[in-house]
Design brief:
single chain, about 140 residues, 2 domains, 5 helices, about 60% helix
Length: about 140
């Protein structure tokens, strides 16, 4: 093995080691994050011998996002089939514009979908933070 090949092997092994370390740190950090509730306190769990599955996260309510898309179908901005494609993306928990474009949505339609979903997201965030919508002030 010449010097060039030895150097490439060292670099490759170093890179593999770094990736393995990164994966280990990510796994530890992810586990710690999962064990912490939203207030930053450690979550308490109990386990029994018959409990063979981990607790599942609560179901996510996508209704506000479905409701945001419905007017786009109702007013003709997107077709019912396109609305169903958007609903499938919402149900999957992510909206991929490339997938929607392949479903036939134009850039104008995609922009309308993004605005509708962004409005729903902002409304949910305001509700969760206790901030009233439409420029009001927060009540004590």
């Amino acid at each position: 093995m010449d010097d060039k090949n030895a150097r490439q092997a060292r670099i490759r092994h170093t890179a593999i080691g770094a990736l393995a370390a990164l994966a280990a740190v990510g796994a530890i950090a992810g586990t710690a994050a999962l064990a912490t509730n939203k207030d930053g306190h450690a979550a308490t769990t109990t386990s029994t011998a018959s409990d063979k599955t981990r607790a599942r996260p609560p179901a996510v309510d996508h209704t506000p996002f479905f409701d945001a898309i419905k007017p786009l179908v109702d007013n003709g901005t997107i077709t019912a089939a396109q609305g169903q494609a958007v609903d499938r993306e919402i149900d999957a928990g992510r909206v991929d514009t490339a997938t929607l474009a392949s479903s036939g949505l134009t850039s104008t339609q995609l922009e309308a979908v993004e605005q509708a979903l962004g409005g729903a997201k902002s409304a949910l965030a305001a509700t969760m933070n206790g901030t009233p919508q439409h420029g009001g002030t927060k009540r004590p």
